[in-house]
Design a protein that fits this description.
mainly beta, OB fold (Dihydrolipoamide Acetyltransferase, E2P), 5-stranded mixed barrel, 56% strand, globular
């Protein structure tokens, strides 16, 4: 089974392209982090999302957005400057916007949340 689930932040705004045959493809990079060797380490994951839904979703994804991605790991093999190269990427099947950079900024600047007086504990 080839399945990957990522939760991380967009490292740049999405790049939206249309192929000559009219198919939409969105490219973006997701940063995930983990603690290893006594420090936080960041790993960048290049992602591709195809189809009509991809171009619609891209309008809402901005650099810094926290997202959840589900997909499969794929290998792209190409030639550059006469040398064979390969690149792994995530072929996205589903994506969810967890928070936008604006929401994160507002949350970080105001850690208190007013639930009103209607909530009884």
């Amino acid at each position: 089974m080839n399945l990957i689930n990522l939760i991380g932040n967009l490292g740049r705004d999405c790049e939206v392209k249309t192929t000559p045959s009219g198919k939409n493809v969105v490219n973006f990079a997701v940063a995930t982090s983990h603690y290893a060797n006594g420090k936080d380490e960041t790993v960048w994951h290049n992602c591709q999302f195809w189809g009509e839904r991809a171009s619609k979703v891209a309008k809402y994804l901005k650099k810094g957005s926290k997202i959840a991605v589900t997909g499969s790991v794929r290998l792209s093999v190409y030639e550059k400057d006469g040398q064979k190269r390969q690149n792994y990427f995530v072929l996205v099947q589903d994506i969810e916007l967890i928070s936008s950079p604006r929401e994160e900024k507002n949350y970080n600047n105001n850690n208190s949340v007013d639930f009103g007086e209607d909530i009884v504990f």
